[in-house]
């Protein structure tokens, strides 16, 4: 029984490590597609997002949302910033006016959405292969 529990813990660690690898790649691709800048400043209060984003090249973390190019968050706690927000919760995305896009897992698959109107409000647009995820509606 001890070995079975150890095996489950080991497998969950491997799977979560693989998920964070994919999340890093997807977040990096999203930020590159939305911004034409080589260096970006990012603000987040979420520890899990921070761990992932810290490993992306050309991303610099800042301690104030006012100094950030983009805010990454799981909750709508950035209403005072008025910066483009990439959310990681679809429910929060629907109700957050500054959320330009959302990235979340649905049925084990990554799902990405962008709002064309919200992108336009910030003078942004999505380039490349992610442009197919831009919708007229925010939800």
As for the CATH topology, it is Rossmann fold
Q: What integer value in Å does the Rg equal?
A: 16 Å
Q: Give the termini distance in whole angstroms.
A: 46 Å
The quaternary state of the protein chains shown equals: single chain
**Shape verdict:** globular
The averaged pLDDT comes out at 82
CATH architecture: 3-Layer(aba) Sandwich
User: What number of domains?
Assistant: 1
Helical segment count: 4
Largest sheet: 7 strands, mixed
Largest beta sheet: what is the strand line-up? 2-1-3-4-5-6-7
Sequence of secondary-structure elements: HEHEEEHEEHE
Classified by CATH, the class is Alpha Beta
Explain what you see.
This protein has a 7-stranded mixed β-sheet with strand order 2-1-3-4-5-6-7. It has helices spanning 2-34, 47-53, 90-94, 116-121; strands spanning 40-43, 59-61, 70-73, 85-87, 99-106, 109-115, 134-135. A hairpin with a 2-residue loop joins strand 5 (99-106) and strand 6 (109-115). The termini are far apart. The model is unreliable at 1-18 (pLDDT under 50). It has a single domain, classed as Rossmann fold (3-Layer(aba) Sandwich). With 139 residues, it is of the alpha/beta class.
What order do the helices and strands come in, and which of them pair?
Layout: H1 2-34, E1 40-43, H2 47-53, E2 59-61, E3 70-73, E4 85-87, H3 90-94, E5 99-106, E6 109-115, H4 116-121, E7 134-135
Search tags:
disordered N terminus; alpha/beta; 139 residues; Rossmann fold; single chain
